[in-house]
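Write out this protein's structure.
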Amino acid sequence: MDKIVSFTNWLWGYPLITLLALSSLYLTIYLRFIQFRHFFYILKQTFGSFNKTPKGEGTITPRQALASALSATVGAANIVGVPTAIMMGGPGAVFWMMVIAFLGMALKFAENTLGLHYREKNARGEFVGGPTYYMKKGFKNKKIGSIFAFTFAFALMVEIVPSVMVQGHSASTAVEDTFNINAGIIGIILAIATALVVFGGVKRIASFTELLVPVMVGLYLIMGFLIIIMNIQHLPSVIALVVESAFNPQAALGGTFGAALATSVRWGFARGIYSNEAGLGTSPIAHAAAKTDHPVRQAFWGISEIIVDTLIICSTTAFVVLVSDVWKDSDAKEQSAALTSRAFEDAFGSLGSMVVSISMVFFVFSTLIVIVFYGSRMAEFLFGMTAGTIAKVIYIISIAAGAFGIGTQLWNLLDLALAFILIPNIIAILILSPQVKQLMKEFFKDYRPLD
């Protein structure tokens, strides 16, 4: 197991981060910088048309699809992962996190466009799509496409087990530490609550996340913005520090210039990529169910995911940690995961730590709901509708098991399974990128209005 962990840590270091960064850069250039050239148009078509729904086919509304996708990406890592990136890569990592967020928009746009273009209806009459469908239907060589689709679906289906265990454990222990409630009891409550939502089907999941996401994100952001305002005198110097450290990170990290710069870029890119899941193939599973008149229009909502998840939530966490100066504490590197909670507690006392714990539970709960849905869709794709239901039961049990600390050895396989999801999806997106470009040109011929 130690060898597997070592290999996985190496793989998720520079190799996969480089693959994601170069793929994002290539698609940004190939799609003619769509996220920059049409940025304000995309905002108008998404946030600017929040209450409008296109006339096309679909199972849920575009904003419900966004809420579902965001539920999976907005998780505990938005709270504990960002300060870790700062402590490991220096303040400059925040700058590189934003850079990869903008580049990753092209990757997220491409996979969602494909997911919508190749979607179909299942036996319940619900629209389904995602990497398995564009691999199976989009590849000219159907045999290779089927192999890719099977690899992706099986890896994602299996990966959900350790993923929900880790998520259940994170939320339960956070509540136990703050409110002194047994983690096992919290895990059981989380599992039951998740089951009540996911067994209601895609419409119930979409309706629930549409209500939950604005509340959980809003609470966290309001408190975060208040901390930044309370330390507003430090904000200009912190912004200057972030930019300066991005290109001259030696002061913060030590070592040679080249090594320090590589470390800063690596941790910034890693946090941005891990947080918004661009290229992982999960987002198209949620967006494929959306009602839309063209794949490109719904793919804009994929870009808006990154705006909310990385540019707003992760950046808020970063600036809360930096302006409050908790990152300068003597034990900051060893206790990096607790820095956000420490900043909130310094500003608001015990109420602050309670807000972080409650936010953690909400973030994890929303993630659990949607990734269980993703896993069941993969089981359904591979083995039929009944298998999808069985998968849900297994995932629900795994949530509670994780809270009790059961199966910790399985947790080590989480990142390895993610690699088997990511690599075939990236290859498929690059192979099918001409189809994305064609659909993009078709849409932008006349800037179709949203009726």
